[in-house]
């Protein structure tokens, strides 16, 4: 672990222009749910860099590359693709192009202001005759989703240089992960009026998936320079502004960019739509556009901010998590979900993983309006038909939700994931349960949700087989959450979630209308089979150790703790062969413990503790999803040092580059981990039984913390310090909660002493 950014409660700051450049770019990524980009430099950078601009819902079905094709394989690997780079503003000083990889600069300062949602940068460029102080300000507007704003100021401190600024749009972009170095875009149109614009379209594909058209248009306002010309060439449009600037004078350029896609606007209407966005935006000065953007961020922070006293690193970490999540997704578009890298990189390709249901939904339930979290469930229901297709490709009944997808069709090209990591179905079902028990609103469950549950249950009923020798139902040939084991039999977590889903579906069917039940075409024989599976599922357990066994042969491994590894072997996924990893006892992420987290209310404290003590020492936490589960369970079990260790790992995973992979982009879908570790961990919030309960304590390194919850029409503020916990009802009616096992009524506020 190493600190990449300086510690500031509201900012991510660096003062070294070249150190860990790609990591810097990831950490200073910004987005607004519609589009986003990495923290690249407007003026360009000739050193090692990863240029990335991404648009939500815009992707390409790249040809799957596998050595041996197997029946049921996805035809393509869905990829987030780099879109037109709208950032560039080339700068020349006396004919020399500014390049921070080569030029002499001082006082370099780069900061992501998370409170405002703005990226700021400054430095002094210098040579023997000239000194110029540059400042750059950038944001993608939350107030107007199709709008991006870049503002540059050049204050001449010494000399009388000729300064030239050339804002342009560059469609000649590539993906770092393309199979054959091909470009994914072709030019459809370009022009200089009404404003410089570029229209590109994704290349043809052989899979019948939609092609996307994107129009990007810019409008530039400049003070202190005169426009020289406008130019267009293949995949590029540009303008040039030039002039001699004396010492003490300042040049200003504001570049407004509108981005319109065929997801919303037909190609023939895109130029007109882009012009309308810029026309409206141009009516306001840069300061007004920024003010509107910052105001919208303030509304988001009002309900979601977590305040920590006495630990700036923890404070920065949880705010960074929240900022990047809300930059990626805020529920405005039901066609979208949360990609594993968001707008920060291309790794992992797809737009949706099971991470959404396992990690993100619980946080969004508490920090956003109910409609935002409900959209995540609607997204899955909208893709139910495709889930049936995925199952049929495996020769199975029911619905198999994809591990990776853009459309609902599986698009991941590793067999151990596509074929075997079927436990993702359980997370989809649990999300429906989680939403219903938290919100108290079962309308989704009893209408759309029951259709999803029925499809998933039919899949499980067909995927199990009956062992006559053991007189139990089993599930062979799977990969559990611990992806460091493939093609194993009877993964405890998978079997547990399959049986639980069948049970929950049967219970939910008792609540639906007769009309709805009839529409599902369920026969009594099918329901009897589901009940039989629930009652006779095989759950591997070792009686001597009194633990649930991760899978049938796990205890036959050379079991040893992680601390037996040499430091140079870590992380093992970057130092060991896959064969060696598969044979090892080391666990990538919570597996058995994931089940104890999901179904927390169904297991005793003793069961949780025995399994935690057995499995955590063998866990390398090389998945970003792992620390949050361990932190929450450790808090519940009174293992406060471990809970805090895991909190720091999840909240600062990218800020401190724990897994040595932040340069590829941020771990967006685990960024709820910091919030969950505080609220479900340190504060002990539980809602799985349909009641709101807390069991709070304050970590030793903190003086206190506070957060807010949106809960069933209420806004509740929770404040915890070393001595006491206080609940303040800021909106809504009085509420009974359970605190340390006792019923407490919150009317205005209530204060209680910390009991442990």
Notes on the protein architecture:
This protein is an alpha+beta fold and 756 residues long. The chain contains 19 helices and 32 strands. The strands form eight sheets. It has a ten-stranded antiparallel sheet. A hairpin with a 2-residue loop joins strand 28 and strand 29. Helix 5 runs antiparallel to helix 6. The radius of gyration is 27 Å and the shape is globular. It starts with 5 loop residues before the first strand and ends with a strand.
* Helical run tally: 19
Number of strands: 32
Parts with pLDDT < 50 across at least 5 consecutive residues: none
Question: C-alpha Rg, in Å?
Answer: 27 Å
Main sheet attributes: strand count, strand direction, barrel closure: 10 strands, antiparallel
Biggest β-sheet: strands ordered side by side in the sheet? 1-2-10-11-12-13-20-17-16-15
The class by helix and strand makeup works out as alpha+beta
Helix content: 25-40%
Average of pLDDT: 95
Span from first to last CA?
A: 31 Å
Q: β content, as a range?
A: 15-25%
The best one-word shape is globular
Strand-helix topology:
Layout: E1 6-7, E2 11-14, H1 21-27, E3 30-31, E4 35-37, E5 53-55, E6 59-63, E7 76-80, E8 89-93, E9 96-97, E10 105-113, E11 118-126, E12 131-140, E13 147-158, E14 162-170, E15 185-191, E16 197-202, E17 213-223, E18 226-233, E19 236-244, E20 250-261, H2 270-282, H3 286-304, E21 307-309, H4 312-328, H5 355-367, H6 370-382, H7 384-393, H8 415-418, H9 424-439, H10 443-463, E22 465-467, E23 472-474, H11 492-509, H12 514-519, H13 524-536, E24 541-542, E25 547-548, H14 578-583, H15 592-598, H16 605-615, H17 626-636, H18 640-651, H19 673-682, E26 693-694, E27 704-711, E28 714-721, E29 724-731, E30 735-739, E31 742-746, E32 749-753
Parallel strand pairs: 26-30
Antiparallel strand pairs: 1-2, 2-10, 3-4, 4-5, 6-7, 8-9, 8-14, 10-11, 11-12, 12-13, 13-20, 14-19, 15-16, 16-17, 17-20, 18-19, 21-27, 22-23, 24-25, 27-28, 28-29, 29-32, 30-31
Helix pairs in contact: 5-6, 5-9, 6-9, 6-10, 7-10, 9-10, 9-11, 10-11, 11-13, 11-15, 15-17, 17-18, 17-19, 18-19
């Amino acid at each position: 672990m190493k600190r990449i950014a300086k510690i500031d409660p509201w900012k991510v700051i660096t003062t070294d222009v070249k150190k860990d450049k790609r990591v810097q770019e990831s950490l200073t990524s910004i987005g607004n749910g519609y589009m986003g980009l990495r923290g690249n430099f407007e003026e360009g950078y000739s050193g090692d860099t990863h240029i990335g601009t991404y648009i939500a819902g815009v992707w390409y079905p790249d040809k799957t590359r596998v050595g041996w094709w197997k029946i049921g394989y996805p035809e393509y690997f869905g990829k987030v693709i780099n879109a037109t780079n709208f950032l560039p503003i080339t700068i020349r000083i006396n004919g020399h192009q500014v390049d921070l990889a080569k030029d002499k600069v001082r006082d370099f300062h780069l900061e992501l202001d998370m409170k405002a949602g703005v990226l700021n940068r400054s430095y002094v460029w210098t040579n023997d005759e000239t000194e110029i102080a540059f400042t750059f300000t950038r944001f993608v507007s939350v107030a107007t989703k199709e709008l991006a704003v870049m503002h540059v100021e050049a204050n001449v401190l010494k000399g009388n240089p000729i300064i030239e600024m050339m804002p342009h749009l560059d469609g000649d972009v590539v993906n770092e992960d393309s199979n054959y170095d091909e470009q994914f875009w072709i030019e459809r149109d370009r022009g200089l009026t009404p404003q410089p614009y570029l229209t590109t379209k994704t290349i043809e594909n052989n899979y019948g998936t939609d092609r996307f058209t994107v129009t990007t248009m810019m409008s530039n306002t400049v003070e202190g320079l005169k426009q020289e010309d406008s130019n267009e060439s293949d995949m590029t449009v540009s303008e040039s502004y030039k002039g001699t600037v004396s010492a003490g004078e300042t040049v200003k350029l504001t570049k407004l960019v509108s981005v319109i896609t065929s997801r919303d606007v037909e190609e023939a209407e895109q130029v007109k739509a882009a012009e309308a966005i810029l026309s409206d935006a141009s009516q306001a000065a840069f300061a007004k556009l920024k003010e509107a953007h910052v105001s919208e961020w303030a509304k988001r922070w009002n309900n979601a901010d977590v305040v920590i006293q006495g630990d700036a690193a923890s404070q920065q970490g949880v705010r960074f998590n929240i900022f990047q999540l809300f930059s990626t997704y805020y529920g405005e578009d039901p066609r979208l979900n949360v990609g594993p890298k968001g707008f920060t990189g291309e790794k992992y390709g797809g737009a949706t993983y099971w991470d959404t249901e396992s990690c993100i939904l619980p946080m969004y339930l508490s920090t956003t309006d109910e409609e935002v979290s409900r959209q995540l469930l609607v997204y899955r229901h909208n893709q139910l038909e495709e889930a049936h297709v995925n199952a049929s490709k495996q020769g199975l009944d029911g619905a198999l939700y994809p591990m990776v997808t853009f459309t609902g069709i599986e698009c991941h090209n590793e067999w151990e994931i596509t074929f075997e990591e079927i436990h993702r179905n359980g997370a989809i079902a649990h999300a429906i349960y989680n939403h219903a028990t938290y919100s108290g609103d079962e309308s989704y469950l009893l209408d759309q949700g029951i259709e999803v549950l029925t499809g998933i249950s039919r899949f499980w009923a067909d995927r199990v087989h009956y062992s006559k020798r053991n007189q139990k139902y089993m599930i062979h040939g799977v990969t559990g959450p611990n992806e460091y084991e493939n093609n194993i039999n009877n993964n405890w977590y998978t079997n547990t979630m399959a049986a639980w889903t069948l049970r929950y579906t049967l219970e939910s069917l008792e609540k639906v209308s007769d009309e709805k039940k009839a529409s599902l075409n369920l026969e009594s024989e099918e329901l009897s089979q589901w009940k039989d599976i629930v009652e006779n599922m095989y759950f591997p357990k070792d009686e001597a150790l009194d633990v649930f066994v991760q899978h049938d042969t796990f205890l036959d491994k050379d079991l040893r703790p992680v601390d037996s590894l040499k430091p140079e072997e870590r992380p093992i996924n970057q130092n060991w062969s896959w064969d060696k990893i598969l044979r090892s006892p080391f666990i990538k992420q919570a597996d058995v413990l994931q089940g104890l987290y999901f179904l927390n209310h169904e297991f005793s404290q003793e069961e949780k503790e025995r399994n935690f003590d057995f499995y955590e020492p063998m866990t390398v936490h090389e998945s970003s999803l792992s620390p949050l589960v361990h932190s929450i369970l450790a808090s519940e079990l009174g293992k406060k040092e471990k809970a805090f260790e895991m909190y720091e790992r999840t909240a600062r995973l990218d800020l401190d580059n724990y897994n040595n992979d932040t340069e590829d982009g941020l771990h967006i879908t685990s960024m709820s981990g910091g919030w969950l570790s505080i609220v479900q961990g340190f504060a002990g919030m539980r809602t799985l039984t349909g009641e709101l309960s807390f069991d709070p304590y304050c970590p030793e390194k903190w003086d206190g913390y506070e957060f807010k919850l949106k809960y069933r029409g209420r806004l509740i503020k929770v404040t915890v310090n070393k001595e006491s916990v206080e609940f303040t009802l800021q909106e809504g009616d009085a509420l009974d909660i359970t605190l340390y096992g006792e019923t407490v009524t919150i009317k205005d506020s209530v204060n209680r002493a910390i009991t442990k």
